[in-house]
Amino acid sequence: MNDPVKAFEHALLVDRVVRRYAARWATEFPSEEALKKYLREHPDADKSKHTVKKVTDYEKAKKYIKEHGDRIVQQLREKTQVPAMATA
What we know:
The protein has 88 residues and is mainly alpha-helical. Helix content is 62%, strand content 7%. The radius of gyration is 24 Å and the shape is flat.
């Protein structure tokens, strides 16, 4: 495909088809508890087609910083002696 517009339209079509069929066959849950709740509510669901989202180290670090960032910054400020700026 040499036409970039046609290539883009094709990519959008493929994306729509994949999303439509992936939603029918598999579901990814944010936690083990969410998966268990879903399986209790849907006893006929195929367990092999449902998974728990894998959390990467980056996502873990980002969550930790979001939860503890203010405390970490405060501790760093307390440990670091920054001289006051002279006003002229």
